[in-house]
From TrEMBL:
Domain of life assignment: Eukaryota
Residue ranges of every copy of the SWIM-type domain listed in the record: 23-61
Main function: Putative transcription activator involved in regulating light control of development.
GO cellular component: nucleus
PROSITE patterns (alphabetical): ZF_SWIM
Location(s) in or outside the cell: Nucleus
Entry's Gene Ontology molecular function annotations: zinc ion binding
Keyword line: Metal-binding, Nucleus, Zinc, Zinc-finger
Family annotation (PANTHER family): PROTEIN FAR1-RELATED SEQUENCE (PTHR31669:SF251), PROTEIN FAR1-RELATED SEQUENCE 10-RELATED (PTHR31669)
The protein's name in its UniProt record: Protein FAR1-RELATED SEQUENCE
InterPro entries: FHY3/FAR1, Znf_PMZ, Znf_SWIM
Family in the record: Belongs to the FHY3/FAR1 family.
One GO term of the biological process aspect: regulation of DNA-templated transcription
């Protein structure tokens, strides 16, 4: 890619950028406020600077770093940290996987500490193992109910869990429905 020429156009500079092995030409316009726009319109359409603008920045303007006005907020680390709101102003999780990753890491940290301490004593190990088994069953029950669309009620004072399992008892939910194989009639 090469910078072919520069033309003054009513207070703006027009740079002609060509690709070495082809006859294609792109016009990069430098306005009086030093904003650049290319005829390929990649930045305006996708939010990514094209190689033509970068060529003008590096060779004509002698700029080594991309100016801040060309770095959209969505490409920064700050974009992940901020809350996203829906059209009603309610906060929504921008990426549900981030929440799941956070929850996974915090649980791993807690259970690693518990495992480390509980392994120091036979009695502590047995208590931790029993509670971990109960907790594993409880988590599976909760996830099954969420999948089945039931409501989970947790009593905070008594710490016991009351599950509404009316539809779980329905034998139709307990059976796995499979597609029947169609017999082919090739002859």
């Amino acid at each position: 890619m090469s910078l072919e020429s520069c033309v003054d156009d009513d207070g703006s500079l027009l740079y002609i950028v060509t690709k070495d092995e082809s006859f294609k030409k792109w016009l990069v316009k430098r306005k009086s406020d030093n904003l650049l726009s290319c005829s390929c319109r990649m930045f305006e359409m996708k939010g990514v600077l094209c190689s033509h603008v970068i060529k003008v920045l590096r060779e004509a303007m002698n700029v080594k770093d991309i100016p801040d006005q060309y770095i959209l907020k969505r490409w920064t680390k700050q974009a992940r940290a901020e809350c996203v709101q829906d059209m009603h102003g309610h906060e929504i999780q921008a990426n549900p996987k981030l929440q799941q990753t956070y929850q996974y890491r915090s649980l791993c940290s807690i259970f690693t500490r518990i495992s480390s301490r509980a392994s120091e004593s036979e009695k502590a190990y047995n208590v931790a193992y029993e509670h971990a088994s109960n907790l594993a069953r409880l988590v599976e029950d909760i996830l099954c109910l969420e999948i089945a669309g039931n409501v989970l009620k947790i009593g905070h004072e008594s710490q016991d869990v009351n599950l509404e399992v009316n539809s779980i008892q329905d034998s139709n939910l307990m059976k796995v429905k499979r597609l029947k194989k169609k017999e082919s009639s090739r002859g």
